[in-house]
Amino acid sequence: MMDSGQLAFCLKRWMRMLINIMTKAFDFFKKETVFSISLILAIISCFFVKPSINYFYYINGDTILLLLVIMFFVEILKNLSVFERLVRKLLTKIRNTRELSLVLIFTCFLSSIFITNDVSLIIFVPFTILALKKVDRIDLAIITVSLQTIAANVGCMVLPIGAPHNIVMYTVSDISFVSFFLLLLPYILVSLVFLAVSSLFIPKNEIVLPQMDKITFNSENFFKRVVLGIDYYLLLTFIALFILIGNLENIPIFYSLFTQWIAGNEVIWGILASQVISNVPAAILLSGFSANYEAIIIGINIGGFGTLIASMANLISYKILVREHSEFKIKYLKIFTILNVILLIILVGVYIFI
Length: 354
Prior knowledge:
The protein is built from 18 helices and no strands. The protein is mainly alpha-helical. The N and C termini lie far apart (80 Å).
């Protein structure tokens, strides 16, 4: 039998272990918030339906496979420094700060067409911060990164493979590449005009870009780096969301409510849901209760603008910038939100009038 001293020692030891576990869990929750919430909700939803093998049928395998293949090839290109080499060649033609910002902004637009908006910002926001530091104009990071994020969210509309939410809709709707592009073309064109006009607020000061470090190819553990670089938590988030929506479809009260609310109001619900849960979960949610896929596609793509959490891409660029310059946090949120809300209102107007 333990004496009081041994008991106290054991209690302290267990408390330290518990605190350590809770700290690690909280840190993981902060890092993978969307996955954590999706997993918790999926688990909770399982208690309201009978255990079934249908959980596996809820998962859209085409979406998961397509997303995995895209991420795999993007990681290969990223580790080969293909995109950074292209941007550096473009930078050799730069003469002033506005041109520098424009190149960085529209690089995000073009790259997000093929490598998804999230990956585009992961690659080019750190490069932007580095480039602006090199010319001693880090003060332009707030407006440049804000517009880069918008540009990435615009570029991802061009092809269905440009963003996770569009990959979901492409696989469930069977809409062709051309039809997908034409559906979102008016919003893409208006958004590009918005970006061009907004860039006029960037000062046009002369700069001289210094010599940057030479890019070297590291062949060591190349395949391992590619495999480990894939965002598996994003795939798991999709799986959790598919299970959640599948369960909700089998709960009569939820199915009835969601069907009544969403039917005929897909665009507005796509916009509103994206502001609260981001457009990836919104895409999976709405596509589970409505077959009006074109309206959902418009809603979730317009909905990617607005709040910081409207799109995962918004959070990515914010985290990268704030990690490097925490003093920009409040000002960035203000500028980013103002620009996004203005564009959101404009795009809603486009939807109403076309």
